[in-house]
Amino acid sequence: MRKLVGVAVVAVAFAVATASYGLHDLWSDAAAAERHAPGPPPGIPVTAGKVVAADEPDFLTGIGSVQAYNTVTIKSRVDGQIVAVNFKEGQEIKAGDALFQIDPRPYQATLEVAQANKAKDEAGLASAQADLGRYTALVGSGYQSRQSVDQQKATVLQLQAALKSDQAQIDAAQLNLNFCDIRAPISGRLGVRLVDIGNMVHAADPGGLVTITQTKPIFVTFTLPQNELHKIHEKQVLAPLTTIAYGDDDVTKLGEGKLAVIDNTIDPSSGTIRLKSAFANLDERLWPGEFVNVRLILRIRKGVPVVPAETVQEGEDGKYVYVIKPDNTVERRKVAVASVQDGVAIIAKGLKIGESVVVQGQYRLVDGSHVQIRPPATKAAS
Questions:
Q1: How many Å apart are CA 199 and CA 187, to the nearest integer?
Q2: Could you say which DSSP state residue 186 is in?
Q3: pTM
Q4: Which one of 3.40.50.720, 3.90.930.12, 2.40.420.20, 2.60.120.20 gives the CATH number of domain 47-55+304-374?
């Protein structure tokens, strides 16, 4: 009896062990199968961005040249030797500042001669007038004839005319003496000195002594196609249009001014209209003779949707953008672009502010692709 019970216990234990081993093996196989089962395909890596609202200018572009507000070539108005130079080349000066001194001694002597002649004629006039008074008093008594009186009157008139001539010569001599002191007629910046101290100069010399350019304010002259003229007129009558000058790279801003002049004729040979804008130029970043890139701002678009320019792609059916949905799939959507400027595309139709879009990585995408958003690349420190 005990043997039968022992056999039964062994059988039950074997069955339990076998059952336990089978269940564990089943679990292991299921886990392994789950680990090796194919998951969802990885998303295509892309760089994402947002459609944002911005105030963007609508502008016309052209190439212009910087022109001094005023340019003066300083010349001598009298002949003589330069005895003093009272400035440094490139110096900024004010109107009335002394520049050159011409030897004044010959003109001082001429002035003194004219003054002496006037004094002599004044004395002669006084004597002639006294004689005229006496002659006039003696006419009635017969001691002087009427002819003598008339002749004395003529002498008085001649001396009076001589005094006027003397005064004119004094004024001319004084003027020439003043011209020996050459001063700046305008405020501005001096150029390179063209004549050194000690040289003889003449009023008839074709060259000058130095030039002055007025750089504050300053002008920028540029041209635009004639078909833009009506837009310019429409906006200019409302308010003076803003003009921005940029450097050769079209990025470095040099100054901001206002449109001052629209030329009165169109150049028929080129079909362009010439315009001139005035800049305060207080920092003197604009320099006469410099070429600049010009933007004439026609208006400011307020709160328009914009995206980076590389977001917009060109296809057979026009421009499109990949819009990222909440489930990280993309929708290829047609858009209308108003303009592209400074690396930014202004969207006229097709996108809403706040939507996520693919900025980079579009070349592997199709409508409905699953994407993996990667952080934007950062520039390495230089």
A1: 26
A2: S
A3: 0.69
A4: 2.40.420.20
